[in-house]
Amino acid sequence: MSVWFILPGNGWDDRKDFKLGLDLKGGSHLVYSIDLSKKDPSQSDADVIAGVKQKIERRVNAYGVTEPIVQTITNERGSFVLIQLPGVTDVDQAIKLIGQTAELDFRELVVDASGKPVLDADGKEQWTIAKAKGSDGQERELTGKYLKPNAQVVLEPQTNKPEVAFEWNSEGATLFEQITQRNLQKPLGIFLDNQLISAPTVQSVIKDKGVITGLNLQEANTLAIQLNSGSLDVPLTIVERRDIGATLGEDSLKKSLEAGIIGAAMVVIFMIAYYRFSGLMACLALVVYVALNLAIFKLIPVVLTLPGIAGFLVSVGMGVDGNVLVAERLKEELRRGRTLGAAIEEGFRQSWSAILDANVTVFIACAVLYWLGNTFGNFLVLGFATTLFIGTALSMFTQVVVTRTFLRTVVGLGMAKSPAAYGVTK
Amino acid sequence: MIDLVGKRNWFFLISAIVIIPGIISLAVFGLKPGVDFSSGTAMTVHFDKAVELSQVRQELTNLGYDQAIVQPAGGNDFFIRLPEMSTDQTTQLKDKLQTGLDTTLSISSLYTVSPIVAAGTVRNTVIAVVVAAVGILLYISWAFRKMPKPIRWGTCAIIALIHDLIVVIAVFSILGWVANVEVDALFVTGVLAVVGVSVNNIVVVFDRIRENMKRGVSRDFEVVANYGIVESLGRSLNTGLATLFVIVALYILGGQTTRTLVLALLIGIATGIYSSLCIAGQLLVVWEKGLVKRKKEAPSLAQG
Q1: Burial class of residue A123 (count of CB atoms within 10 Å of its CB; 0-12, 13-18, 19+)
Q2: Is the ipTM of this complex over 0.90?
Q3: Which of residues 134-193 of A touch B (CB under 8 A)?
Q4: Residue A240 and residue B113 in contact, taking contact as beta carbons nearer than 8 Å
Q5: pTM of the model as a whole
Q6: In chain B, what are the domains?
Q7: Is the separation of the CB atoms in B148 and B213 below 8 Å?
């Protein structure tokens, strides 16, 4: 059997191909609840959820996260969107970018008959959303939905202050032209989520483009991304947040690997000391088992998390189980005076039902845990269930196929004939 | 041959000594639910200079977070448990702690769960536990279908299983009020994995006992059972030890994130080895013969 091609990379340290979970590489795991009660009644729930997902994906991609995950979950408690941002350090800014509705609109001052602004009780000016006739003659509000998705941050040449430059599509241009026309030399308010950002005075009739001022660089960057992704149709609120610092993740990975290597070394020493030759065979089978396991982790690929590594290591420990069962049977058959070859066949035959039976309960536990981890997006629980399941299934395979093949080969070659090599003492 | 069955009353006593205080602790203190189940915010903070635990506590009280639980997490790191905090509140807390304690602070991990998610997790956990219980019961009734008295054998297996679970849960209950150890989704994960491994051990031992009955080792069920248990001794101890080697290494060397999972596995698997060798088969004997040893009774089981 050729083991080379399934061994992971060039060495044990070469882990670049393994997919690491958030707890190992750092980053943020966010769950937002989608407030569907605030949706436009003409839209279906499914459309709103799909829209939210698409827009968040655009925002996350524009923010420059590598391998982000955006998933929606709908259950009896409502609809949620789950976002994983590996490697993000400024989580607060990411949260602002992702979760904000980012609804942009343009508003006109409310004026009385004499043209003076109407003030409210606090002495503040009143604004109303600017409306104009669209290309089909219908009245339309001027909002961010008529923007082309090409807004960008530019620096104003004289003041060097950041601005967001935007362009209208043809419908937006139709509306903007009429609105700037009737507001010449008057302020036009630019609102983001009902907050006034700036109120420039209209100097000339403008058709298809404009700039938004009054922002710092970070705000401008955020706004540009949001305008290009489109505003969310409904508000989002954070219901779960898990941040893991990159150093913590790295540290955890190192510790787990150390623990794994030491644990596995102890298992090997113990097996060989106790079962001698068949223990050595079992350990060789274990090496094949570990290599197969790691290869599967890469192929599927399995996202490795800390609990996932724990699940894998537990499966290595338990993988010894089948080998021990076989070795014990083998010893017994030899004591009863069978020939080595017959003892091996009998040992495997007798222990197979126990190996199969014994692992069923582990599979039941894994299935339940997988469901539990999946329904609420708990990637830690999911990680454990996945690796324990793969590990247990594979260990059954190696016990039955690999160890037996090794032992048969050894017997066939006429090596290790003494029963003492199998730990039988008389 | 060691007489493990003959010493059964001692084993029952040992188990009682562990389980009774555990049940009392569970009844009085219960378990401390973590952020997963009770909602709230848990964070690990790192200060750039040495800070006393009392200073951090005092500062949090000054800031109005008097219900905060603060624990040292090694070096200049502290674990802080708070009611649910919004993004803004977290940032404010960080800033205020920095000014108050005159140092820079970084939040190395943060976990916030709102009541809506916590309630969902509680509900799903209950469903998971119920489904697992039903699954295991079905499995046991299937695995023991060939046994002479399936209900009796199945019941003994389940009692031994519950024994293991009580030990794990009780230890966490005691650790809860002694060391503020909370139970989270990973604890549940550990407990369910323990169920899988425990049943596995019991099935192997029972299988051996049944085999020896078939072989007609003795007419006395006590002898038959002891024979089966002692024969499984090597396998059970060795497998268990191999698994425990790895888990102990993970517990000592592995990180904080998986502590509850690994601890639950450690206690559960160790208890599982003990109960499969010292409790499960012995229960069968007790059911067959009664608690008091009677001599030379016809073994009805062996004829089944």
Answers
A1: exposed
A2: no
A3: none
A4: yes
A5: 0.84
A6: 8-34+117-303 (1.20.1640.10), 40-112 (3.30.70.3400)
A7: yes
